[in-house]
Task: inverse folding
């Protein structure tokens, strides 16, 4: 108390103070805190309620009461105890204490059950529960699982082996074709081996070419990963048993990568047979005395034999080979006396209507006569056949060399 220049202080024991004077400010603060806590719980967008040890709901916030009203109706919600949105034992036995557990609510009038992510905290022997709607998450997981099953079914029908490694380079997914092509046991693949372990097993099973330097090969796996992530890894593996695999790498989301194994043994065998047939055909055509050339419908030189190269080679410009009809006829014109046959053949080669076989005779600059025959071929191509004849009074070259 202040009186003029004097201040009077009164000291008293807190135990002897009058309750009204001592608790006035405390009660105001507690009341303000209570109003704030009630307002917070009322506007919370998630479900919040308290259950006793018997599972009875003894308190709930507005969101909980609104959800309960939709299921049980206003009259039932107004009665005591507050109806439980979840079976009383479902929450308490869910193991949601200190962690989130997904459970279903009781059925509504449409016999629909909503999903919620629940969490329980023990407070003075009761259970303080929170629940967040999880229907959208459940639907998303269902769609993802359905999509995964669809992919798995699709992968299982593929003849190409597919092995997907996650960002830590552990095998995350594989299809049955991987087992068929690599002969790796299923229990090994399901153990989620690392990329290095996977390739080691391929090497032991002799399902990949034996590296000359094993240590260098192990070090090159990092290069393989980089190439696969860039989508540039592609190799052809020729195996000791005669099989041939095409192996390629592809990047996948979230740092994952995929290895694809394709058995191309039949394709390679067909290619080798086709190449052998071409070589045989070329050898047979080269044995002919007549010079033969085939031009496509677009005028490209697609085939010729050794006799053609010998007849139509320019000693002055050996690099000019005549890869098209225009270039070839220009070369022919240079090596022969002037003749309209080459212009006629150009027109013949580019005609798109029905054509007939025709013949002609030209004279080389060295005096030799060449019989020409031009034949329409399949797909608009044209066949040119030249039969050189020694000039009259000229000694054949083989006899000239013999003398």
Result:
């Amino acid at each position: 108390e202040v009186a003029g220049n004097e201040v009077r202080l009164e000291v008293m024991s807190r135990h002897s103070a009058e309750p009204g004077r001592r608790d006035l400010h405390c009660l105001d603060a507690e009341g303000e805190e209570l109003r704030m806590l009630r307002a917070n719980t009322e506007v919370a967008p998630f479900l919040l309620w308290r259950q006793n040890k018997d599972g009875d709901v003894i308190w709930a916030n507005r969101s909980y009461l609104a959800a309960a009203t939709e299921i049980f109706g206003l009259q039932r919600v107004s009665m005591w105890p507050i109806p439980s949105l979840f079976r009383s034992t479902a929450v308490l036995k869910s193991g949601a204490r200190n962690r989130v557990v997904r459970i279903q609510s009781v059925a509504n009038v449409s016999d629909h059950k909503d999903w919620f992510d629940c969490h329980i905290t023990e407070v003075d022997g009761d259970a303080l529960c929170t629940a967040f709607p999880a229907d959208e998450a459940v639907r998303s997981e269902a769609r993802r699982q359905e999509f995964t099953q669809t992919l798995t079914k699709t992968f299982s029908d593929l003849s190409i082996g597919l092995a997907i490694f996650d960002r830590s380079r552990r095998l995350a997914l594989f299809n049955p074709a991987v087992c068929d092509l690599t002969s790796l046991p299923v229990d090994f693949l399901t153990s989620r081996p690392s990329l290095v372990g996977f390739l080691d097993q391929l090497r032991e099973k002799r399902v990949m070419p034996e590296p000359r330097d094993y240590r260098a090969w192990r070090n090159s796996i990092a290069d393989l990963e980089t190439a696969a992530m860039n989508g540039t890894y592609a190799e052809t593996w020729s195996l000791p048993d005669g099989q041939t695999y095409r192996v390629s790498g592809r990047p996948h989301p979230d740092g994952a990568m995929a290895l694809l194994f394709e058995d191309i043994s039949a394709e390679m065998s067909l290619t080798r047979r086709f190449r052998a047939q071409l070589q045989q055909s070329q050898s047979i055509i080269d044995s002919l005395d007549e010079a033969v050339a085939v031009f496509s419908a677009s005028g490209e030189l697609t085939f010729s034999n050794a006799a053609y190269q010998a007849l139509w080679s320019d000693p002055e410009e050996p690099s000019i080979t005549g890869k098209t009809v225009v270039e070839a006829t220009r070369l022919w014109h240079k090596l022969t006396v002037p003749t309209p046959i080459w212009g006629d053949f150009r027109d013949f080669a580019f005609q798109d209507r029905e054509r007939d076989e025709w013949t002609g005779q030209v004279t080389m600059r060295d005096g030799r006569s060449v019989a020409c025959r031009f034949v329409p071929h399949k797909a608009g191509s044209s066949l040119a056949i030249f039969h050189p004849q020694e000039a009259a009074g000229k000694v054949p070259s083989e006899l000239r060399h013999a003398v």
In short: The longest helix spans residues 19-43.
